[in-house]
Amino acid sequence: MTNRGRCTHQLYWSTEGFPTFCQRDRLRAISNTKGTDSSQSPKPTCPVFKLRALRTELMPGKTLEMVLEGSSSTPQVVKEQLLCHAVVGSKAGKAPIMQMDVTCEFVDPVLQVSSREITFWVEKLPSDILSLQHKPLSLKNLSSLLLSVVLALDQPFLVCDAARQPLPADVQVSRTFPQ
User: Fold this and answer.
1) How much is the pLDDT for 22?
2) Is residue 50 within 8 Å of 70, Cβ to Cβ?
3) Spatial CA neighbour of 13 closest among 45, 44, 43, 58
4) What Å distances lie between residue 156 and 110, 114, 127, 161, 171, CA to CA?
């Protein structure tokens, strides 16, 4: 956002239909919908989208980078309107200067897993030496977007690379799957 005027602007952002300082309490919003008709979407108590830097001062000729964040724990299409009010120069009171419609479709990721359970069985005699056992695990992204997955295992299990070499225990394994 760039101030192309000659006066300093004090900018204030909000979301249409929501209080200016709304706490993002999703658990309360979800628990209040129990016992209601599932065909009706409950009105959210807080906006899904949030701008970082809700209030800021923008000097003439200066540019400000802003970040719009949004998240949803359920797949849905969300439409909200962001409003910007400003105090321009030394004038008293805020005036609306801009509005922005934001629409986002949150999708449900679909990950195909080769096996829901991997079972290891070992019968060991006191004289036996245990060797590593390997079981393959295949993951395939079936959704239309990139998907990031973190796989974490407890001891004595390890994540190995394609050459069946254990990865260091302190390495967090993360993989992004293209569509």
Assistant:
1) 58
2) yes
3) 58
4) 29, 22, 20, 16, 15
What residues pair up with 9 in beta bridges, in sequence order? Answer: 58, 88
Count other Cβ atoms within 10 Å, centred on residue 18. 15
pLDDT tens profile 106-145: 888 888 888 888 887 888 899 998 887 888 888 888 887 7
State both tokens at 7: 């006066």
Which tokens hold the place of 71? Answer: 């998240």
What is the pLDDT averaged over residues 46-64? 88
Q: Which residue has the higher pLDDT, 94 or 145?
A: 94
Q: What tokens were used for 38?
A: 């599932």
Q: In sequence order, what are the beta bridge partners of 116?
A: none
> Strands 111-113, 139-141: parallel, antiparallel or unpaired by DSSP?
antiparallel
The single-letter code of the amino acid at 63 is: T
